[in-house]
Structures are given as C-alpha cells and as structure tokens.
C-alpha cells in the first residue's frame, strides 16, 4: 500500500437521501443544488411541526425555537423552495395558493441570495449549495472530522461518568460515520489524536500512506491542543483503530485488515475495563468478518471461544451475545451443525442483549432446528427473528430469513403468505422460492425438478438446497392428495403417470405411506391395482381447527409476555418522590 492514495468507497446513490449525498461529497451543481433544496424543505417542515405541537400543547417554547431558526432558514430560501412549500401545504383550488403563486411565477428560477462566506463554517457553505469540487470535498471531510470528534467526546464522557449509554450512542452512529470515511479523514484523525513521535501513530500511518493529491487535503485538525502530553484513553484508541479496520474492509484490503484486526485484539486484551465492553463487542465482529473475507474463518474459532469464556466469567453481556453469534456463524459456515447445537445447549444467551443480536441468534437457532427436522421449533424461532429484526433496515438479513422461513413452512405443509413475495425489497430475491412454492402447491413433480435445475446454484448459495431436497416428498404428498380429491377410484398406473413415477409399484408404496400418515383417507385393492377414496369428512369434526386455534392463541400470548418483559418501569425512588410531593401539598 506504500505510495497509494485510497479513494473513498464507491457508494450507490440511487436511493440515497439528500443528507447522504452531501455527506459523501457529490459536488455536481445540479445534484448539490437539488439536495440543498430538499434539505431546506425538510428543515421547514420540521419547524412547522413545532408550530403545530405548540398549538396542540399550548407550549410556547416550540414557537420560540422556530423563531430562533429563522436566521438559518432565511439563508436557504429560494424560488424552488417557496414553490415547493406552497404546492405542498395549500390545496390546489384555493385563494391562498393563487395569492402566493402571484409572487412565484413558474419557470423563473432565481439563484440563491449571494452570501459572504468568508467566515462561514463548513455547515453553512454546504447548506448554501457551494459546489466547487475542492470546497465541497474539503468541507465534507472537515464535517466528518467534527462528527468523529463529537463521538470521541461521548466516549470520554462515558469513561468519566461511567454511563455506558454514551458508548451505545457512539456504536449506533458507526453506520453513518462509516459512509463518510476516507483516506484524508483517517490521516487527519491520526495526526490530530496521536503525538508525533509515537509507535501508535507510526503503526496507523503504515496503512495510510501520505496523500499525493494535496488539493483534497483537509486543514490541520487539532482536537487535543494543549493535551498532547495527556495519554489517549484506551477506549478512544480502540475506536480509532476500529474506524481504520472498517475502512480497510470497505476498501477490500483484506490482508491488511486481518493484520490490523489482530493488533486491535491485542490492544483490547490488554485492557480490562467495563467501558471497553461495548466497543470490544463491535471489534470482535469486524475481526471475525475480516478473517471470513480471506476465507480463514476457522482460524479465529479458538480466539472466540477464549473470549466467550472471559466474557461469561466477567458477566459481560454485550460481548457474550456477539461472541455466541459469531461462533454459531462460524460453525454453520462449515456446516458443523452438531457443534453448533452443543454450543446452544451449553450457553445461556443473555436476556439483555440488543434486538439485533437476538434476531441473529434466533435465525441461527432456526437453521439448526430445521437441519434437525424440528420444523415447528424452527418456524417459531424464525418468526421471532423477523419480529426482532429492524423494520426499515437490514434488508439482506430479512431476505435470508424469509428464504429459510419459506422452506420451513413448506416442509410443515403450510402455504407461505403470498404478500411476502410481492414486497418490493423481497420480490427479486424470493422469485425462485415463489416458483418453488407454486410447484409444491400444484403437486407437480416435473415442475419441481425444473425449478431445482434452474435455481439449484442459487439455493446452494443460500444454504437451503439440503432442505429443499426434502420437499420432494411434500410434492408427492400434495399430488396424491389432489388426486384423491378428484377421483373416487383410480388405478395405480394412472397415479404413477400423473406423478411422473417410474412404475405402478412405486405409486403403490407412496399411496400406502400417504394412507398410513393420514394424508388421504383411502384403501388400496392390491389385486386389481386401484385406489378407492373414501368420502371426505367434515373438517370441523376433526381436531385440526382446535390445533390451529391453539397455535394462534399461544403465539398471541407469547407476544404479550415479551411486551410485558420489555416494558420500562419507573425507579423505586419515583414513588417516594410522589409521596413527598403529595405530603408537601397537604
């Protein structure tokens, strides 16, 4: 990597929001101008919400907040913004709209008011749509450095006050910070936080060679002016190290990423502090990810086991949840299902783990149960994982969940919900599984074989091929059931022809097994080689409705119990405060 200047990771901005596009430094005049107008409309809409809230609650503080923001909003007003507001808030045939439109004729697009930007901050320059490549790129990098400095302040505050909620906030912001990382930002962080003659700085600079293009270099970043002699907190150093590791992974420098992650693990192992636990959990994830990308995932298994033992002894629930999921992923990657089941049976997943970790754990548990033929338990775990997963994010994870859940439902003899296949995010990914569902519903063995032939590679990549092979018996059962409903008497040769079986003998075995399993109510005449179907009984006279009702009630009770456990109650001190307030009033 010596002498190379790494460009920022290429980002697909087709669905990016205005904030994301600005944050990533897109400096085309039309794009930046359009995005700035959109951001201005969003800001004004937020101010209008404050006004509505003030009217509803009679709290005039919201109006005060709106008035204070008038100065910043004023700088961003232009012809397009005002027309957008009028068209958005006034109904089409209204005198108010006509009155406003007299002052805003269509087609006369006015340029934004000229503003003296000599002393303007980076935020002001971006907000006013300055689209010079150097200026916008420089300002975006400067804003990113300021954002990261704010996150580091949260870390320092968490260490000083022992409030881990600040660390949680930093971890949540990793996704947005990750999109803005580039070579210049990381060099600015290293030069700003590490003193000049230090082994840590030299180590970081090995992965960040000096930039050849000085036009994009940011202004000197000195977040620790006057504190250079104060040693850097281990948590802050781990956070900066983690940002470097994420950057190397995004840039596809996987060998350097594994070396970087090894050194990061050494630094974390040297520190035994509670405030390091949350950061360490994210570092463990990216350490495993870096080895997975170089196809050496088995190499980190002993390390993960050792760290899990340490986390369990120290009651470090955050790291414990992450490490259990990483080990399960490791085992399932190499199809070591027995070892994965032994791990699940011997560890207790922490109840206080975040929903994201719970969703991963339930997904892995559902996969293990499906391999062990316990389809009912697998279905319960997968449905619970879908409920724990983020609603508007993690699309790839939810696609994998729906793929596995579709196969499990088919193995249970149920029909998956058709609306899932119509959702925009899942339609393309679940198309092979939709065709699979149709072939099983029709009981067409030939169509099922054709789907396997066409989409076999996709099923193997999704690691569902082994389970789908088991569906062949379900296809045959469905075909036998449809035949029994259509014919009161049919020869075994005709059944073999309809099911595309080899001969009548195979059809006789299959029909006999279907009768034994209760799939159909029929009898076989072995001498004359035909099947007689008995009259269909009323479904409501069987136990099936009771079982379905029981399953749904149990599901609702489970949701209720989890909702009660997730409720937050006021501390005990709250009751004392209420009693003292009532006593003083009396």
Automatic annotation (TrEMBL):
SUPFAM superfamilies (UniProt xref): Winged helix' DNA-binding domain
Gene Ontology terms describing biological process: regulation of protein catabolic process; ubiquitin-dependent protein catabolic process
Top-level taxon of origin: Eukaryota
Source organism of the structure: Clonorchis sinensis
Domain PCI: 359-538
Name of the protein in question: 26S proteasome regulatory subunit RPN3
Similarity section: Belongs to the proteasome subunit S3 family.
Keyword Transport: no
Any one annotated GO CC term: proteasome regulatory particle, lid subcomplex
Pfam family, one: Rpn3_C
């Amino acid at each position: 990597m010596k002498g190379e200047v790494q460009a920022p990771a290429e980002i697909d901005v087709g669905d990016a929001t205005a904030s994301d596009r600005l944050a990533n430094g897109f400096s085309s005049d039309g794009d930046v101008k359009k995005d700035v107008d959109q951001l201005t409309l969003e800001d004004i809409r937020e101010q209008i919400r404050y006004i509505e809230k003030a009217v509803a609650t009679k709290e005039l503080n919201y109006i005060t907040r709106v008035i204070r923001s008038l100065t910043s909003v004023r700088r961003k007003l232009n012809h397009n913004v005002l027309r957008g507001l009028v068209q958005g808030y006034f109904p089409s045939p209204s005198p108010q709209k006509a009155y406003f439109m007299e002052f805003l004729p269509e087609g006369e697009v006015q340029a934004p008011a000229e503003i003296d930007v000599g002393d303007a901050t980076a935020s002001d320059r971006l907000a006013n749509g300055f689209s010079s490549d150097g200026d916008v790129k420089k300002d975006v990098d400067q804003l990113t450095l300021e954002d990261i400095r704010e996150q580091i302040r949260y870390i320092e505050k968490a260490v000083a006050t022992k409030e881990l909620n600040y660390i949680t906030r930093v971890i949540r912001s990793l996704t947005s910070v990750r999109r803005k990382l580039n070579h210049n930002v990381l060099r600015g962080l290293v030069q700003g936080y590490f003193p000049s003659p230090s082994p840590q700085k030299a180590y970081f600079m090995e992965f960040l060679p000096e930039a050849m293009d000085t036009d994009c270099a940011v202004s000197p970043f000195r977040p620790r002016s006057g504190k250079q002699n104060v040693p850097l907190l281990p948590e802050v150093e781990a956070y900066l190290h983690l940002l470097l590791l994420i950057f190397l992974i995004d840039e596809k420098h996987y060998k350097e990423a594994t070396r970087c992650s090894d050194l990061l693990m050494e630094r974390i192992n040297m520190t035994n502090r509670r405030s390091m636990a949350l950061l360490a959990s994210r570092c463990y994830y990216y350490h495993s990810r870096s080895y997975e990308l170089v196809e050496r995932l088995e190499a980190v298994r002993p390390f993960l086991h050792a760290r899990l033992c340490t986390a369990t002894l120290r009651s470090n629930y955050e790291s414990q949840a992450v490490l259990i999921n990483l080990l399960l992923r490791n085992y399932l990657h190499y199809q070591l299902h027995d070892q994965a089941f032994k791990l699940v049976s011997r560890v207790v997943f922490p109840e206080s783990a975040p929903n994201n970790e719970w969703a991963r754990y339930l997904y892995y548990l559902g996969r293990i149960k499906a391999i062990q033929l316990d389809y009912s338990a697998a279905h319960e775990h997968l449905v619970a994982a879908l409920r724990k997963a983020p609603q508007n994010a993690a699309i790839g994870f939810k696609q994998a969940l729906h793929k596995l859940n579709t196969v499990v439902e088919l193995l249970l003899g149920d029909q998956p919900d058709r609306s899932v296949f119509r959702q925009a995010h899942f339609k393309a990914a679940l198309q092979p599984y939709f065709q699979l569902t149709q072939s099983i519903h029709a009981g067409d063995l030939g169509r099922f074989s054709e789907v396997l032939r066409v989409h076999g590679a996709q099923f193997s990549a999704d690691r569902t091929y082994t389970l789908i092979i088991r569906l062949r018996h379900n296809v045959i059962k469905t075909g036998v059931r449809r035949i029994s409903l259509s014919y009161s008497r049919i020869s075994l040769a005709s059944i073999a022809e309809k099911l595309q079986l080899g001969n009548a003998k195979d059809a006789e075995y299959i029909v006999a097994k279907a009768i034994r399993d209760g799939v159909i109510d029929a009898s076989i005449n072995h001498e004359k080689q035909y099947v007689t179907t008995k009259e269909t009984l009323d479904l409501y006279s069987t136990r099936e409705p009771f079982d379905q009702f029981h399953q749904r009630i149990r599901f609702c009770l489970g949701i209720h119990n989890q909702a009660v456990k997730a409720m937050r109650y006021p501390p005990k001190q709250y009751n004392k405060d209420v009693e003292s307030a009532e006593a003083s009033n009396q």
